[in-house]
Specification:
- There is one protein chain.
- With 203 residues, this protein is an alpha+beta fold.
- The protein is built from 3 helices and 14 strands.
- Strands 1, 2, 3, 6, 7, 9, 12 and 14 form an 8-stranded mixed beta sheet that branches. It has a 4-stranded antiparallel beta sheet with strand order 8-13-10-11.
- The longest helix has 14 residues.
Length: 203
């Protein structure tokens, strides 16, 4: 389905209550999206992610990178990272989604999923380093993947499909009340790059 040529309402809230999720659809045409995918795939300083879970060090197949206005420290899953300097392409993308959303961002966490076997378990981006109730702008390049939300109390679920070159924004109390995940799938054999633009609050 070619969502680029369909009308999508970016003001529509996909969550029924206690949060706001807006999906803008594909904001880049295929040629632009292909260009950014190749640039990011080949120029980002990708590293395997490290998490400390129940005292055990876990190294993921998924690769990550952390960029920002300055060497912000960001801690999640009991592991810390220092932000690298922006690349030219990341600054371009940051400017584009700031214009689209009206939000401002000072950092970006990138994830590289090599195929559908790699995903992300249910979690919320509620780290104290992040601006509380601030917007998180999520860009997707590469393989189309399902993205799922689950309410922390009611367990109600909301699923979206994120396409190549698309933008999703999570804001308001979404992280307080909802979990989200990228479910693994055997139907996808190609890679996906996800960029989540964020705002770090310095202590």
């Amino acid at each position: 389905m070619d969502l680029f040529n369909q009308t999508i309402d970016p003001t529509f809230n996909w969550l029924p209550y206690q949060g706001t999720v807006n999906y803008y659809g594909t904001i880049f045409n295929k040629q632009e999206a292909d260009f950014y995918f190749e640039k990011l795939f080949n120029t980002i300083d990708w590293r395997n992610d490290i998490a400390i879970i129940f005292g055990k060090k876990i190294i993921t197949k998924r690769k990550v990178a952390w960029y920002g206005d300055k060497p912000f420290e960001y801690t999640y899953s009991n592991a810390s990272k220092l932000a690298l300097d922006w690349t030219a392409e990341l600054l371009e993308l940051k400017k584009i989604i700031e214009q689209k959303t009206g939000a401002t961002f000072n950092s970006c966490l990138l994830n590289l999923y090599h195929d559908g076997s790699e995903g992300m378990a249910y979690h919320s981006d509620g780290e104290t380093d992040l601006l509380k109730n601030g917007a998180i702008g999520s860009l997707s390049f590469g393989a189309t993947r399902k993205f799922a939300f689950k309410h922390k109390q009611t367990k109600e679920k909301v699923d979206l499909v994120l396409d190549h070159g698309s933008l999703l924004v999570m804001k308001d109390t979404t992280q307080t009340h909802w979990l989200h995940r990228l479910p693994p799938t055997k139907k996808v054999s190609s890679p996906r790059i996800n960029l989540t633009f964020r705002t770090i609050v310095e202590k």
